[in-house]
Every structure is written in structure tokens, then in C-alpha cells.
Amino acid sequence: MSGKGKVKVGIIGSRFEADIHAESFRLMPEEAEVVAVASPTPGNAEKLAKRYEIPRVFTDYKQMLLEKDIEMVTITAPNRLHAQMTVDIARAGKHVVCEKPLCMTLEEADVMIDTCRKEGVLLMYAEELFFTPKYVKAKEMADQGAFGKIYLVKQSEKHFGPHGDWFWDVEQSGGGVFMDMGCHGIAFCYWFLGRPKIKNVFCQMGTYVHTDKTKGEDNSICILEFAGGAVGMIEDSWARRGGMDDCIEIYGEGGVTYADLHMGNALPTFSAHGYGYAVEKAPTTKGWTYPVFEELWNYGFPQEMHHFARCVRGKEKPQATGEDGRLVQEVLYAGYQSAGAGRKIELPFRPEGVQRPVDLWYEPIT
Ligand SMILES: NC(=O)c1ccc[n+]([C@@H]2O[C@H](COP(=O)([O-])OP(=O)(O)OC[C@H]3O[C@@H](n4cnc5c(N)ncnc54)[C@H](O)[C@@H]3O)[C@@H](O)[C@H]2O)c1
Question: Which one, out of 9, 35, 100, 182, has a CA that is 20 to 30 A from the CA of 240?
């Protein structure tokens, strides 16, 4: 490894999030370049490689890990594969960027963190909400005292359900919408408030619309109580029609701010005929729609990947780490347990031997 010049990146996976990573590096090319992609489905990696002029293509990611010049590998594969992939990447001496949620179990999280530490590589947790420009602005104002003492931080993400089959299969995902998107909200509230201790978790969830598709929950509400008195409230849905909705609300003794990720960056549009693309998860481009511009930038993905590449070069310290991912994982456990048991769960909550977080909803530990 040269340790100089642009960080050479390999991507594992070739579909939704892989495309976002590749496009993010293309949008901010100063620090890193994607030199390889690995994905098992014949043809898929080639297609991504062609779109982004990625020179090397592999069907087996372990072959990609043999490439000496690759310094950082991003994981955009289903959740159940994150832990093993992280271990393999770290053992190959490469830095890891792991998509959310970090993994399936707390045991896996420990192994991921320990292996990366032992191998001397970074484990960076891809939580783009730490880089979302509107949300970063809200945090800057909060840190400057704009809202005084904050008592409530809300984050919600809602749409009509994910694009890939594996998300609906709890064996592969570990849970439904709380696992998939609640992990964003948990990380967001924690980060926004300056990483205070989380005292307890209360959660309600159900499968309201997609009972034919999944054993996972498709709507969840989660309340976190933090040391210092602030409350986090996280709402997530795969049952909400009408495309993507991602919002925050911040309430303090001295003020309030609201941010809607997609509105204000959108063009209220009516089309009888439809057009190419409006926004993530939008079911149609006919009638009234709200197409966004610079979508990835507004989410913060390019800024996130740029930051991670700078961390590899020692120019910045990771703002989102394996430890953040592990804490989120613990709160996911506590949330499922809370929904199953119908009561608040105090942290720390680290039951051993859980196979999938959602199991704690089906059968809470007594
Ligand atoms: N940060 C975000 O907002 C965000 C958004 C979407 C997805 N994600 C996360 O990214 C990950 C991938 O989600 P996605 O939406 O891209 O899913 P997807 O179904 O679109 O793509 C999954 C990819 O993983 C690949 N894959 C499967 N098994 C593999 C293996 N053994 N080796 C290598 N590659 C393998 C598939 O071929 C496919 O290319 C998930 O963990 C998801 O939670 C994060």
C-alpha cells in the first residue's frame, strides 16, 4: 500500500447502496478512487463497473481482498454478511467502511471491533445522517446554544418499504423497519446530543400493512431517555405511502428547529405524462410529485465517503465508528425487547446468544 495519493477503494455489493458509494466517490474525487467492485450475481458488478469506469471486477470479494493496492473496502451487502466481511477485510489489512446496521448481534459487533483493532485498521460506520447538510446545520446551531437546553430530539424516516427481497426476510436482515431505519434515528439522537449515556429504551411496533411479505415489523416508535434529561423520539415506517420522508425536530428551552430532508430541496411538480426520476422510493412520477436535486449531496453520502477517505490518510478522525454501531445494536436489542415485553428496558442490555434482534420482540427474555 502506498499510503499516498488517492485512497484506493473496493466496494462489496453492486446494487442500491453500492451505486450510492460509487457515485459519492465520483462526486468528491479528491481523496479516493474506486478501483474494484465485487458482487456474486453474474453481470451485476460489471454493470456498476461500466457505469462508474471501475477497472477491476470480482464475483468473490475474497479475491478482491488479495489486491495489494486496495486500502479501504466498503460493505454494501445484506446485514447478515457484514460481520464476516469486516473480519475478512481487516485480516487482509484494509480499512473497513460498513453500512448500517453494523451487524446482526452484539457478539458480532465485538468481534468486528476487536479484529479491526488487532489488525490496526479503521472500522468506520456508515451513518450518513452525521453528514446530512441540513442536520449538520441543526447540530451546529444547537452546539452554539441556539435552542438552550434541549429536551427533545425527534427523527423519523418513512416510506412504503425497501427495494430488495432480503430486507423483508428477517433471517437476512435481523428485523424489520426498526432494524433497517431505526438504527439511523438511534445514532442521530445520540450524536446530536453529544453522545450522552442512554438510560433506557421504550418501543412499540407492529406489522400493519405488509403481513404478506414479512415477519418483521413495518412500523415502529421508539423513545430513548438520555442521561442529562433529554429524550429521543424515533419513528420509522415501511407502511407509509407516497415516497420517502425523512425529518427531524429539535426542541429546547430556548428554541426549536425543524428540518425536512426532502422538502425545500424539491420542486413541487405536476406532470400528466410522468418523467424519469423524482426521489428515492417515489412510486410514480405522474400527478403531483416532489423531485429533488443533488439528492446524494442532500443526504450527505459524498461528504461521508470523503471523510472516511481522509481518515485513512490520517487527515481526520472517524466521526462514526464501530463503537457507535455497537451502541446502536444494543439499543436495537433493547427496543425489540421493550416492544415484546411492553415496558421500558434499562441499559446496559446485553443478552447473550441472540440470533436476530427481532427475536426479542417475538420472545422477550424474561
Ligand atoms: N445508509 C443508508 O441509508 C442505506 C441505504 C440503503 C441500504 N443500506 C445498507 O446497505 C446494505 C446493502 O443494502 P442495499 O440496499 O444495497 O441492498 P441491495 O439488495 O440493493 O444490494 C445488496 C448487494 O449485496 C450483494 N451481495 C449479496 N451477497 C453477497 C456476497 N456474499 N458477497 C458480496 N456481495 C454480496 C448483492 O449481490 C447486491 O449487490 C444493507 O446493510 C443496508 O442496510 C444503507
Answer: 100
